[in-house]
């Protein structure tokens, strides 16, 4: 679920850029702009117990409609 959310949040200019970034994300290497914009993002934590529950994610401002 973490990689899917990453794809939704980060724009890709080309397919090659997408592939490169997703390979880096799998190795826990996030672009600086992602870390600055979403510092609390823990969906990619190695241990499932460290990942947020889906109900917690729904409460975040990211998913609130205006």
Mean pLDDT: 81
Main sheet record: none
Looking at CATH, which topology would you report?
A: Transferase(Phosphotransferase), domain 1
| First-to-last CA distance | 24 Å
Strand content: under 5%
Q: State the total count of DSSP E strands.
A: 0
**Helical proportion, percent range:** 40-55%
Organism: Euroglyphus maynei
Protein name: Protein kinase domain-containing protein
Summary tags:
0% strand; mainly alpha; globular; Transferase(Phosphotransferase), domain 1; 4 helices; 66 residues
List the helices and strands and how they pair.
Elements (H helix, E strand, L loop, with lengths): L1 H8 L5 H12 L5 H6 L16 H5 L8
In short:
This is Protein kinase domain-containing protein. This protein is mainly α. It has one domain: Transferase(Phosphotransferase) domain 1 (Transferase(Phosphotransferase), domain 1, Orthogonal Bundle).
Q: Mind explaining what this structure looks like?
A:
The protein is 47% helix and 0% strand. By secondary structure, the protein is mostly helical. It has one domain: Transferase(Phosphotransferase), domain 1 (Orthogonal Bundle), CATH 1.10.510. It comes from Euroglyphus maynei. This is Protein kinase domain-containing protein.
């Amino acid at each position: 679920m973490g990689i899917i959310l990453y794809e939704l949040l980060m724009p890709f200019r080309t397919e090659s850029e997408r592939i490169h970034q997703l390979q880096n994300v799998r190795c826990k290497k996030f672009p600086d702009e992602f870390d600055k914009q979403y510092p609390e993002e823990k969906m990619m934590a190695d241990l499932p117990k460290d990942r947020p529950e889906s109900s917690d994610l729904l409460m975040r401002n990211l998913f609130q409609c205006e």
